Amino acid sequence: MYSILFLTCASFLSCLALTPLVRAMSHRHGVVDHPGARKIHEAPIPRIGGVAIAAAYLVAVGAFMFVPLTGVSFVDLPEVLKFLPAAGLVFAVGLVDDLFGLRAWQKIAGQVAAACVAYWAGVHVLGVAGFYLDGWWSLPLTIAWLVTCSNAFNLIDGVDGLATGVGLFATFTTLAAALVHDNTPLALATAPLVGALLAFLHFNFNPASIFLGDSGSLTIGFVLGCFGAVWSQKSATALGMTAPLMALSVPLLDTGVAVARRFIRRQPIFSADRNHIHHRLLDRGFSHKQVALALYAACGIATIFSLVQTMPFNRFHGFLLVVFCATVWVGIQFVGYAEFDIASSLVMSGAFRDIVNARLFVNALECRLGEAITSDDYWAAMRDVSIELGFPHVRMLMMGAVYEHHKEGANVEHCCVMRIPLFDAGYVNFKFPTESSIQHAVAITSIVDILQRSILSSAKPVVSDRVEYWPVPHPAVAGRLRGTRKAHPAGAAVIANRNPAVRRVRPS
To answer: What is the mean pLDDT of residues 301-322?
Structure first.
């Protein structure tokens, strides 16, 4: 216990002393974050606070190795600090991004490389929620976990003191779990980070005088991911990574929601926006301090769930997990995301099934039109479209041949009309009711492109002399057809008029 207190106090005092120095150096060399459209600060702020935290951590560990305290003699420090080379690589990637700027893929590549280094150093994610992986399957899971944790803290670092405070809660939770499970190496590795984050929060809380920067947020997330993996390896429960997931739930939830939002809106996953949890709370009228304190409270609740979940005597793991998920759902509903409300309504109302069915129908239509050769082939496809979608009327003019189909008993007086122009003054006219469903809307918007692309990509269709009989049209339509026979161009002759539903006009 004295060793843990020493490491915590040493890192705390070191960070208190180093942070002003880093801040002054950052101002002197112009390494600051300038205000912008997505920024909420109004003045340039130093952005390499991660340097102070990393330096304080190393100072505390170095002092611990030379001070004769209980713990040094029975703890293998190289084993405790096996994640440091990987964390150093992530820190370097973040610092380069702070100083010079990196593209998203470059940062991801550096994080993946660091995750591989951590894996070969012994940091393994062996399973989630009781499902364990053997052999090399653990490698991609470990990489995904560490990269996700790194970026989760980077994305949530949008309000003064938020990422630092969230990291402090998660680190304290890991330290408490290590003490509960008598995991001395993990406790000794976690303690310096607790002290460093607590000291840095003094400078980073609103109004912040220095930011974590990528060197800080990426490193904190990566290190906590390593701690979570070690925690799960030593966990006495069968749920493994569930407790670490709960401890990191706030940043992980924000990242997951951001990815889901961008996927639903068909936006690039790595694109920046102003719809993270802290932004949504700001839009609801919270001040910067209130946002940070509200999310601190959420982290406190997650800490309680996580510690109870990891207790050896806990017999209600499943029930606790259900309650936690319900709490998360309530929190998401409170923040309010229109994307999820719309997606949920689409699924519950059946509109999602209509869209799927419409897309399947459109795909089948595209294949059918790709095989069409004669004008009759195209007409058969258009007629089936009309029948399938319940359209009351369809008319097609192609290569001088006129085709028409009317649904018996249908009223076309109050219908919308969609006209698709074809070559040689040809066209396809669809009449459909104004109250058409989502399935109709998806199909209608796709038919135009598919039909025109199909005709343009192939030779002009051949007019067929074969007479086909379709259902007799509505009497009003039949009368109009009979009344328009005299309007045929000079030199044209009707080649099929036994059924007024199908008429073909071919130059004589």
So the answer is: 82
